[in-house]
Amino acid sequence: MIDVEGNRLRYVADGAVSTDRTRSLPDRLVQLFEGVAAVIARFTPDEAAVEETFVNKNPSSTLKLGQARGIVLLVPAQAGLVVGEYSPNLIKKTVVGGGLAGKAQVQMMVKTLLPGYTFSGADAADALAVAICHAHHRETARRVAVGSGAAGSRAAGSGAGNRGAARGAKRVGR
């Protein structure tokens, strides 16, 4: 979760929505739905961002990831939030400057761009990178549309990893 005021970013929180691996897929999707809804209720974001899906070698894993992603897209949309989607390469290019950047580079830049953030895991750093990417692209789009600097906004978002869990949430400032 990040706040954005103009071009200033501020770290708010990070975390993960976990599901019980011993439960059935439908039960895990309900857990994911409820977890993402709780994050949105707690942080009241204005917008959300999600990492686009990549294809796994395992078709079953890819299908499950798609189902989890559907939940992660549905919950904020149902709450009336704008939901942005960004490719992994665009996220890396926006945050680091190169689309082929490694995880260590992304993590270092997230820490640099968000003073106060202490590394709590690769998934959290990835989710915060999605939020940073969204903040940059939404602000640029607003400035083009308005013709001048736009007010801040708050956004929540997540990336879905190959485990299909929602990673973090981000706010893009109010």
TrEMBL record:
<keyword id="KW-0460">Magnesium</keyword>
<dbReference type="GO" id="GO:0008821">
    <property type="term" value="F:crossover junction DNA endonuclease activity"/>
</dbReference>
<comment type="subunit">
    <text>Homodimer which binds Holliday junction (HJ) DNA. The HJ becomes 2-fold symmetrical on binding to RuvC with unstacked arms; it has a different conformation from HJ DNA in complex with RuvA. In the full resolvosome a probable DNA-RuvA(4)-RuvB(12)-RuvC(2) complex forms which resolves the HJ.</text>
</comment>
<comment type="function">
    <text>The RuvA-RuvB-RuvC complex processes Holliday junction (HJ) DNA during genetic recombination and DNA repair. Endonuclease that resolves HJ intermediates. Cleaves cruciform DNA by making single-stranded nicks across the HJ at symmetrical positions within the homologous arms, yielding a 5'-phosphate and a 3'-hydroxyl group; requires a central core of homology in the junction. The consensus cleavage sequence is 5'-(A/T)TT(C/G)-3'. Cleavage occurs on the 3'-side of the TT dinucleotide at the point of strand exchange.</text>
</comment>
<keyword id="KW-0378">Hydrolase</keyword>
<dbReference type="InterPro" id="IPR020563">
    <property type="entry name" value="X-over_junc_endoDNase_Mg_BS"/>
</dbReference>
<keyword id="KW-0234">DNA repair</keyword>
<keyword id="KW-0963">Cytoplasm</keyword>
<dbReference type="GO" id="GO:0048476">
    <property type="term" value="C:Holliday junction resolvase complex"/>
</dbReference>
<feature type="active site">
    <location>
        <position position="123"/>
    </location>
</feature>
<feature type="region of interest" description="Disordered">
    <location>
        <begin position="151"/>
        <end position="174"/>
    </location>
</feature>
<dbReference type="InterPro" id="IPR002176">
    <property type="entry name" value="X-over_junc_endoDNase_RuvC"/>
</dbReference>
<keyword id="KW-0233">DNA recombination</keyword>
<feature type="compositionally biased region" description="Low complexity">
    <location>
        <begin position="151"/>
        <end position="167"/>
    </location>
</feature>
<dbReference type="GO" id="GO:0006281">
    <property type="term" value="P:DNA repair"/>
</dbReference>
<feature type="binding site">
    <location>
        <position position="51"/>
    </location>
    <ligand>
        <name>Mg(2+) 2</name>
    </ligand>
</feature>
<feature type="binding site">
    <location>
        <position position="123"/>
    </location>
    <ligand>
        <name>Mg(2+) 1</name>
    </ligand>
</feature>
<dbReference type="InterPro" id="IPR012337">
    <property type="entry name" value="RNaseH-like_sf"/>
</dbReference>
<comment type="similarity">
    <text>Belongs to the RuvC family.</text>
</comment>
<dbReference type="GO" id="GO:0006310">
    <property type="term" value="P:DNA recombination"/>
</dbReference>
<keyword id="KW-0479">Metal-binding</keyword>
<keyword id="KW-0255">Endonuclease</keyword>
<keyword id="KW-0540">Nuclease</keyword>
<dbReference type="GO" id="GO:0000287">
    <property type="term" value="F:magnesium ion binding"/>
</dbReference>
<feature type="active site">
    <location>
        <position position="51"/>
    </location>
</feature>
<keyword id="KW-0238">DNA-binding</keyword>
<keyword id="KW-0227">DNA damage</keyword>
<dbReference type="GO" id="GO:0003677">
    <property type="term" value="F:DNA binding"/>
</dbReference>
<protein>
    <recommendedName>
        <fullName>Crossover junction endodeoxyribonuclease RuvC</fullName>
        <ecNumber>3.1.21.10</ecNumber>
    </recommendedName>
</protein>
<dbReference type="GO" id="GO:0005737">
    <property type="term" value="C:cytoplasm"/>
</dbReference>
<dbReference type="InterPro" id="IPR036397">
    <property type="entry name" value="RNaseH_sf"/>
</dbReference>
<dbReference type="GO" id="GO:0009432">
    <property type="term" value="P:SOS response"/>
</dbReference>
<dbReference type="Pfam" id="PF02075">
    <property type="entry name" value="RuvC"/>
</dbReference>
